[in-house]
From TrEMBL:
This is Ring-1,2-phenylacetyl-CoA epoxidase subunit PaaA. Residues 1-28, 324-394 are annotated as: Disordered. It holds the Pfam family PaaA_PaaC. It comes from the Bacteria. One of its GO terms (molecular function) is phenylacetyl-CoA 1,2-epoxidase activity. Transmembrane segments: none annotated. NCBIfam families: PA_CoA_Oxy1. One of its GO terms (cellular component) is cytosol. Residues 340-357 have a biased composition (Basic and acidic residues). InterPro entries: Aromatic_CoA_ox/epox, Ferritin-like, Ferritin-like_SF, PaaA, PaaA_PaaC.
Length: 394
């Protein structure tokens, strides 16, 4: 493991106190002040840094919901893998669905750095105690839905998630860099799929339009409730977990989609859509928030089916987890009883790749994406952040 060259924020150099900063080095006000200063200076909070309990729990809540969305989100599109119209489309769709599983893994890994386990989070999902995105409770009725999901759902996901590449919590921000790159590809494949349909036969054009009609409004709901009903936004924005409000991102998404819909040759199902010269944005009609609330309560068209399928997949996968655990135990025992030259070489290579110290209580970092990448993310809005080694610490 790469040695930590500077002490984690919130712990005095050389102090042996607990990682919450309450040890021999610093007073509670000092660690809070160090945390506040780091957030104000746009520095990253890392797993071993002191952080307020509510910051930690907010992150666990959001990252867990996000991770659950990625893996539940595999279901609607996986529904079409066996019926994809060509080998090329099937290969693309399989790769996309696999990517979503990967996103779930990065995100569960990021949540683990906060001291929670993947098992615990999955138990909460399966018990209905944690949410996943409302969007995945709608059915995929035709092949065109695969295109509409790529264009609109992945498009909304990117609009929401690119700013998360600059989230104040390091492991989440770094996971988002890679996720956003892949989501960009997903969005383009959806657009290209719809374009093929709108340039096709009359029946294909009608199928594309019908899919857009059904996915447009639920996609706008993905951004969350309106700002005046968003319980977490103000605090999450103060902590720089969220960088923009729900309504700001929703508006950004509408502005991006209107010209794309025109280029595609589809109509967005909103008679109130019109350009507002004064605001410099597209005005759009009222969202049915009652429908959103019903979906969140579990009454969407597919809530029951999605959770049932997830629980069944988890139960059916028990033997894989047991086999993996047995393999890991065997591997650990081999290491304990004597290093072969090969094992030692493997370890050295792995150590070189561990760029960031893991959480004191949690497993290793979810990915090794470079720390600087979030600030070069596609929204281009990020100021460069201080690197771990140059940052001044409490
Ligand atoms: N669905 O106070 P706020 C994807 C809940 S990934 C369900 O505004 P916050 C990739 C919210 O949790 C899509 N629940 O909350 C893909 C809270 O409930 P709680 C997922 C929602 O956290 C593509 C309550 O309402 N993306 O699509 C929703 O500040 C294709 C009050 O709301 C993320 O998770 C909703 N739409 O803002 C995969 C991105 N909206 O916890 C497969 C990260 C709100 O108090 C195929 N998350 N709620 O019980 C975020 O950016 C934020 O969490 C928001 C919500 C913006 C979603």
């Amino acid at each position: 493991m790469t040695p930590v060259t500077s002490p984690p924020r919130g712990r005095a150099a050389g102090a042996d106190g607990p990682p919450d900063g309450s040890g021999p080095g610093l007073e509670a006000e000092d660690v809070q002040a160090a945390f506040d200063a780091a957030v104000a200076a746009d520095e990253r909070i890392e797993p071993r840094d002191w952080m307020p309990d509510t910051y930690r729990s907010t992150l666990v809540r959001q990252i867990a919901q996000h991770a659950h969305s990625e893996i539940i989100g595999m279901q609607p599109e996986a529904n079409w893998i066996t019926r994809a119209p060509s080998l090329r489309r099937k290969a693309i769709l399989m790769a996309k669905v696999q990517d979503e599983a990967g996103h779930g893994l990065y995100l569960y890994g990021a949540a683990e750095t906060l001291g929670t386990s993947r098992d615990e989070l999955l138990d909460k999902l399966h018990a209905g105690r944690q949410k996943y995105s409302s969007i995945f409770n709608y059915p995929t009725l035709t092949w065109a839905d695969v295109g509409a999901i790529g264009w609109l759902v992945d498009g909304a996901a990117i609009t929401n998630q690119v700013p998360l590449c600059r989230c104040s919590y390091g492991p989440y921000a770094r996971a988002m860099v890679r996720i956003c790159k892949e989501e960009s590809f997903h969005q383009r494949q959806g657009y290209e799929l719809l374009l093929a349909l709108t340039r096709g036969t009359e029946a294909q054009r009608a199928m594309a339009q019908d899919a857009v009609d059904r996915w447009w409004w639920p996609s706008l709901m993905m951004f969350g409730p309106p700002d005046d009903e968003s319980s977490h936004s103000a605090q999450s924005m103060a902590w720089k977990i969220k960088r923009h409000s729900n309504d700001e991102l929703r508006q950004r998404f509408v502005d991006i989609c209107v010209p794309q819909a025109e280029a595609l040759g589809v109509t967005l199902p909103d008679p109130e859509l019109r350009w507002n010269e004064e605001r410099g944005h597209w005005d759009f009609g009222a969202i049915d928030w009652q429908e959103f609330r019903e979906v969140l309560k579990g009454n969407g068209p597919c809530n029951e089916q999605r959770l049932h399928r997830r629980r069944t997949a988890h139960e059916n996968g028990a033997w894989v987890r047991e086999a993996a655990a047995a393999h890991a135990a065997k591997h650990t025992a081999t290491h304990a009883t004597g290093h072969t030259a090969d094992h030692a070489a493997d370890r050295t290579a792995a150590d070189r790749d561990d760029r960031v110290e893991p959480a004191a209580a949690g497993p290793a970092q979810p990915n090794t994406a470079p720390d600087t990448a979030p600030d070069t993310a596609p929204d281009g809005a990020g100021a460069p952040s201080a690197s771990r080694s140059t940052r001044s610490r409490a």
